[in-house]
Each structure stands twice: as C-alpha cells, then as structure tokens.
Amino acid sequence: MIVNRDKVLKILRTVYPFNRAEPEQLSILADKTEVVFFKSGEMIYLEGAGAKFLYILFEGEVEVLKEEHQALQKKNHLYAGDLLGEDILTRKQLRQTGARALVDTLLIRISTPVLSRFIQGNPNLRVDFQFIADYYELLIKRSPRLDFKSEAVYYLGQPHRLYLAVKTSLMLLLALLLGAGVYFLQSGGIITAGTAYGLAGGVALLYGLWFWWNFLEWSNDLYIFTDRRVINQEQGVFLYEGREETPMDMIISLSSRASFLGRQYGFGDLFIKTFTGSLRLKNVPRVDQTRAYLDYLIEKNRTSKRREAKQDFANYLDKREGLAQENDFAEHEEAHPEMVGHIHSTSLIQRLLGLKRVQGETVIYRTHWIFLVCKTIFPFLILSGLLLLLIYMNSTGSRLLESQFVFWLLILLITAIGIWWFYQYLDWRNDQYIITPDQLIDVYRKPLGTEDRRAAPLENIQSIRYQRIGIPGLLFNFGTVFVKVGSEDFTFNNVYHPLEVQQTLFAYLERADLIEKRATLAEQQRQMLDWMDTYQQFNRDHAEDDRQADKYDKSE
To answer: Which intervals hold domain Cyclic nucleotide-binding (predicted)?
Structure first.
C-alpha cells in the first residue's frame, strides 16, 4: 500500500493530542515523519532499549508486551489510529515494554528531534503529552484484573494523591496530639520514660497501620478507559470490592465538578451520563483534561463504527449477493473471539456444585454454594443426628427399637427431615440467573409453588457493576452483580466469581448490540440497493423512450 503525505496528514488530524495542534504545525510534522512496515510476528522494539521514536498505527494490529516472572505478559492491544511507544515521553526514555506486530502493519514513525520541535512549536500540547506519559507509566506498573484480550486500554488512572493526603491528615493530627499528651505526661512525672516510649510506639504503630490501610484502598481505586467501555474499580482492604462498567455506546454526555481545593490542584469528580443514570469517577486528577480525552475516545468509537458501516456497505455493493450479511457476521465474530470464548469455560467448583451451567449459547448461574450450606445445615444436622441415634440404638441392642411405635417414629422423622433437606436444596437450585444471546432472565421458583420470572432484552442494558462485601464475600469469592436495564434494576445475588459474571454479561451485550446493528444496517443496505436498482431501471426505461422520441423527430 502506498502511503502519501496527504494520508499521513489525515490520520495525524485524528490522533490525540496531534488533533489539537495548529494546522500549519501538523503540515510541517507530516513532512518530517516516516512510514515503516513490519511483518506479522516481527518485533517493532524491545524492552530495555532506548526510546528513539513515537509511533502511530496507520494500519494493522500491535500487542504491547512486558516481561514479568520470566514470561512475556500482554499489556495492551492496539489498532489503527493508536499511539505506540510512549516511553519517548518519559524522563528516562527507555523502553519499559516491547511491541510486536500481530499482522502485517504500517506505522507512522516520529523521531525524538522531530517530536521535540513539534512540541516547541505547540507549547500548549506539552501538558497533553505529559498526560499521556503519566497514564502510560501507571498502566505499565499496574495490572488490573480484567480479561481484556484484544481490547485496547487507552487510559488508566487513580484518585489524586491529595485525596489520600487529606484523608490521612486528620488521623495524623490526632496521632501528633496523642504523642504530645504522652510527652507532657512523661515530663510531668506521671508516667515513666519506658511507659511513654511504649505509648508513643503504640500510637505510631496504629497510625502506620491506618496509613497503610488507606494507601492500599487508594491504590486499588482505578479508572479505566478502553475502546469499548469505561470502568470504575473500587476495593477496600478486607471490606468490599466493586466494579462498574458503562459501554462507550451508552454514553450521552460528560460533565465535571470540582471543589475549591480541587480547582487549585486540578482534580474533581467526572460524571458520565447514560440514558438512565450516571457513573461518577471521584477525585480524578486533571479532571478537565481527562474529560476532554474521554470525549475524544467516545467520538473515536463512533467514527470507527461509521467507518466499519461504510466498509460493510462497500463490501455489500461488491458482492450483491444474499449471503453477504451472513459472511459479514462470521468475519466479525472471528475477529473478536474473546467476546464469548471465556464464557464456555467452567472451573471444577462450578461443575461439581452446579454454580454455572452452559447449554449451547445459554449460561445459567446459581447463588454461591455457601448459601446452599446455610439453607441445608439445620436439616442436615438433625438428619445426621437421627441417623446416628438409630445406628447407636441398633448397635447397642436398645429395647426402644423393639417398640414398633418408636421405630416407625424414627423412620418418619428421618423421612420428614430428609424431605425438608431436599426441599431446601431444590429451593436453592431453582433460583437461576440466565443469560441468553438476546435476553437476561431472573428466575425465582419455589418447589411445588409459584415461579417469578423476569426478563429483559440485552440491548437495553445501560451499565453493569458488581460488589463483593465483607470478609466472607472476599474470602469465598461471591458477590452481587447489578445490571441497569432501562429504568429497572436486575440483580444476580450472591453469585460465585461475580467478576466473571460481569464480563460474561458485557461480552453478550457486545455481541447482541453488534448483531442488532448489523442486521439493521444490512436491511438499510438492501433498501438502498433496491432504490438504486429502481433508479437505474427508471433511467434505462426513460433513455429508451428518449431514443424513440428522437427517432420520431428525425422521421418527420
């Protein structure tokens, strides 16, 4: 493929932060860049090497790799229009990662001197490039527990450091006051020096534990922007864990709010509004810049969808066959196997206890096994006691068993308790959370009783979040998944591995949205082709009439 200057300039105008530069500066930059080609599987640069170039993907796919525990770990997956090699923007300018082409790839390459002159010519972009460098370094250092696979991660952030300082300063002030009190007690001879040192050490230890606790909570709070969703992750040490996701397609507006202190230090709350509610990201550093960047990502997502629609229509025009739609579906699903690939896998615990069952494209979840134990523990203990009593009486030759009344009473009690146990088991088993390719179903069914079934189409999902609360939830890995469907809330209560359930829901939502949009697009394409055929036939018919009219004129 021949890449001329105009094509390079066109893509520069769409890539952040180059799209914020002056047009004449972009034109100069386009003259100074190079276009390089890498074959599939070829390394673009290696970890540990000097960073000499910043890259922009013109065409192809690239994975970003980092060596951890003597193995290469995938850190990101990038597509056309994405930045690559942000190490050039850091202080050390050393490659913290490696990059490998996944397919034949074309890259726009910008050298360090060219980039430096460009930034000097656009000093207002200096903060934008620093913004990119900061979130890149955080992404490399942190590894959020999300199965992104081929999902591009464009931003990773956490609450402003000043938020942590303010949160811990009050306890620090209290610790200093207690330390001062201990000092005055010791200087007044009320307590001995050894006691004073012990009390001071205790106060310092308590504050250290308090600071460590809050630091871990602060460091576990993350904001993640990908090419498909916005994620807000929160985790308190031994207390709770939560994650909320909002698809990019569902976002309708962004706004921010900052306190007086936030305005002075550039942080605030970012509000992401959807059709039915909003997602709040608290104490976001550089909140105005983050909002502008997220706005850019939303528009980039929409532009990508429009480009795909145009390409699909071009392919449809080329084929002009009824099977074109099915081929398009197959191509797209093969391009994104991660959407549903992990859904069909089940762990040993899930298989043994029936916590998750896959039937074709339908996934069925049940509440955690610990709730089965809670429901059946009392009948189980009573039943076990009665059986042990019966065995003991039989082994000791108790005369009570000779009584038909006592014998049949024990049998009746054992049978009744067994039925009670089985009823509780069925009550647990009949509560199901079902995900189908087009529906979300919540089933509550009492044995020999009523059934309450709620269903909602997947395409109406606005947001998905989950929570694991308390030490039992974190220890046994269960929690509740909250799904916002229109103005209604669906909850998957106390399910095993709620993160997996959330990811399954998101994968099904993506596929349902894809199928619906592509079906609508295919129908629109068919209508347009019918109109074009009708128009062409109309022109041919009128052209024939015109020729006949000309023939009559000449004959006269």
So the answer is: 17-126
